[in-house]
Amino acid sequence: MRLKVAPSILSAAFERLGEEVRAMEEAGADQIHVDVMDGHFVPNISMGPVVVEALRRATRLPLDVHLMITDPERYLEPFVAAGAHHITFHIEACGDPAGLARRLRERGIGAGLALNPATPAGAALDLLPHFDLLLVMTVNPGFGGQPFLGDNLGKVRAIRERERGLGPSRRPAAGPLDIEVDGGIDARTARLCREAGANVFVAGNAIFRAPDPRAALRELRRSVADGAETE
Length: 231
Description:
globular, alpha/beta
């Protein structure tokens, strides 16, 4: 599995967002994580397709758009048109996850499924063949800066174990399933998540609020790469 670090711009300085994102690209980030909140599915409002379009002009990195919104199927097209490389939506907000994943793949967009902390791994296990990414929320979504909820490590393990049992013939895309973790991720908690089976690490405050964000990103990468096989 390739280990990937994805800085979350929710914690970046929005008055100089382009500069912040370019700094992450120079520091070796693998992708940029864009948290979209609607004030309904989660109790906060963040950003929309206009920000994704601006980011597309500011960086060559893939844009990993995380839709924390009600009725995500209504808003896929604007984010695709804005330049999203990958779109993740919540199982709790979608009545037909497999159908929505198929729509994204038909457009050449990566499809991810997110689980809130209260949602058990079992809710997603039978859906794994339809997705290239499973996002395990390690905080309750809606706000940055929350403490890491370690109970979700068991969920990561269960998903990785099921994915390994499927084999490549049951997967819509080549390679293993990406398991992403988001919430309270820093050098210490990322290492715990990697040991449980995660390979994509979203970090906001741990990077952008550090005295040296570039150094913080590199330290997080070192923490998960230590002892792991990387590409």
